[in-house]
């Protein structure tokens, strides 16, 4: 194992950098195409006009959701922000200036919201998602995931194993790298300051001090590329990826074991909800881990990708995905 102390250093351009995106984001960038064909009959656009009046639309690619008491927020492509004050209320729709492609949203310990734009931007809201301030990120790397540290720090990870961090609410940033020409696809901090990043080629790194130092661990076997990761404690964690693969660790990322699943669909997200783990993926896949076994969760048949979810106050799971998917699902 190797220990890396991330002193602030500028990442210099290298020969060829990996800019490979996670499959979930490649899918999200595919534009929805509406092909209208007609001869002499006039087009009836009433359905299109009605759809444009709705807060959530079939053309929306909803990448991430976050929930705190009294507020639910979802973000997606083309600057989409959706928010409401409870699961019973109607969604309010807004589009951010410059229409950034938002790929993640998080709630920080001080109650502020931060959202990551694929265009090297972070957006912050201090008023319950009513308004957002854009912050340009000082990096040329592609960024894929975002996290708040328990100390209020902001973190983003991406290509060339980059870790970007701010300790003053985005006013200044430090850019560091694990030294690998690889894409980091996830970052997570636990309440005790333990942090994990995972990425391409099976990269795993752990921090014991909220990102001050990062220790490179042994790679996940077979160059497994985690699309998402979730740790429930310092010791226990899971990663998900292509072909319905799930692996877990019981020793803080030092070793990994395969957990069989009943699907071969790519898995793009994993969350903890109601004391259970839920994995999300292609073709409307929703799996629940119960008594150590992954099982399909009863859900509507949807030919869309699903990427993120969060537990609502009513005990249901709010799931986000392609084609305007915002689904509340009973997981009991």
What is the topological layout?
Elements: E1 2-5, H1 23-29, H2 46-52, E2 62-68, E3 71-76, E4 80-84, E5 92-95, E6 102-107, E7 113-117, E8 121-125, E9 133-136, E10 143-148, E11 154-158, E12 162-166, E13 174-177, E14 184-189, E15 195-199, E16 203-207, E17 213-216, E18 228-231, E19 237-240, E20 246-249, E21 257-259, E22 267-273, E23 276-281, E24 286-290, E25 293-296, E26 306-311, E27 316-321, E28 325-330
Low-confidence stretches: 1-40
- Main sheet summary: 5 strands, antiparallel
DSSP summary: helix tally: 2
Q: Widest sheet: strand order?
A: 1-17-16-15-14
Shape: globular
Q: How do you describe this structure in short?
A:
This protein is mainly β and 332 residues long. It contains two helices and 28 strands.
Explain the overall architecture.
The protein is 4% helix and 42% strand. The relative contact order is 0.13. The strands form seven sheets. The chain has a five-stranded antiparallel sheet with strand order 1-17-16-15-14, with no helix packed on it. The longest helix has 7 residues, at 23-29. The N and C termini lie far apart (41 Å). With 332 residues, it is mainly β. A hairpin with a 3-residue loop joins strand 7 (113-117) and strand 8 (121-125).
Which characteristics define this entry?
mainly beta; disordered N terminus; 5-stranded antiparallel β-sheet; 332 residues; single chain
């Amino acid at each position: 194992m190797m220990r890396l102390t991330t002193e602030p250093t500028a990442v210099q351009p290298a020969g060829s950098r990996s800019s490979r995106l996670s499959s979930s984001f490649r899918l999200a960038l595919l534009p929805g195409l509406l092909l209208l064909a007609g001869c002499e009959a006039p087009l009836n656009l009433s359905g299109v006009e009605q759809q444009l009046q709705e807060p959530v639309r079939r053309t929306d690619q909803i990448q991430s959701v976050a929930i705190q008491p009294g507020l639910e927020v979802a973000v997606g492509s083309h600057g989409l922000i959706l928010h409401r004050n409870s699961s019973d209320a109607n969604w309010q729709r807004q589009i951010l200036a410059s229409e950034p492609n938002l790929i993640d949203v998080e709630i920080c310990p001080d109650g502020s919201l931060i959202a990551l734009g694929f265009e090297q931007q972070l957006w912050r809201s201090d008023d319950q998602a009513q308004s957002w301030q854009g912050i340009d990120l000082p990096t040329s790397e592609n960024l894929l995931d975002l996290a708040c540290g328990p100390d209020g720090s902001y973190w983003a990870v991406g290509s060339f194993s980059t870790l970007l961090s701010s300790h003053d609410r985005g006013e200044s940033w430090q850019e560091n790298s694990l030294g690998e020409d690889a894409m980091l696809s996830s970052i997570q901090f636990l309440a005790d300051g333990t942090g994990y990043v995972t990425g391409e080629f099976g990269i795993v790194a752990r921090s014991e001090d909220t990102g001050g130092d990062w220790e490179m661990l042994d790679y996940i076997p077979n160059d497994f590329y985690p699309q998402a990761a979730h740790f429930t404690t310092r010791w226990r964690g899971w990663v998900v990826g292509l072909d319905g693969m799930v692996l877990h660790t019981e020793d803080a990322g030092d070793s990994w074991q395969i957990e069989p699943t009943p699907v071969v669909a790519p898995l793009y997200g994993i969350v903890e909800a109601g004391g259970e783990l839920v994995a999300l993926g292609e073709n409307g896949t929703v799996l629940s881990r119960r008594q150590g076994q992954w099982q399909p969760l009863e859900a509507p048949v949807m030919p869309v990708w699903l990427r993120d979810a969060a537990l609502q106050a009513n005990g249901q799971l709010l799931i986000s995905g392609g084609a305007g998917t915002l689904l509340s699902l009973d997981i009991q």
